[in-house]
User: Which sequence fits this backbone?
């Protein structure tokens, strides 16, 4: 059981790292898009979209972290 949990943890850690890597690329693309135009030209909906993306991504990653850790918390 301990070995299975270790394998599960390794796989979920790689998935989490890959997700963070993709998230970093998306943030860089959004930053590139916004920096190409003056700050006054960025519309309110675009700003809200960027904020919502960051907030929702943080919520999702927190949920993934908790999901990954649950089996380890439940082992006697």
Assistant:
């Amino acid at each position: 059981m301990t070995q299975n949990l270790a394998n599960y943890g390794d796989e979920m850690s790689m998935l989490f790292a890959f997700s963070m890597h993709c998230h970093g690329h998306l943030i860089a693309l959004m930053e590139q898009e916004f920096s190409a135009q003056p700050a006054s030209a960025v519309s309110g909906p675009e700003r809200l979209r960027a904020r919502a993306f960051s907030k929702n991504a943080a919520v999702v990653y927190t949920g993934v972290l908790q999901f990954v850790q649950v089996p380890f918390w439940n082992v006697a």
About this structure: The two ends are 11 Å apart (CA to CA). The longest helix spans residues 2-35. The mean pLDDT is 76.
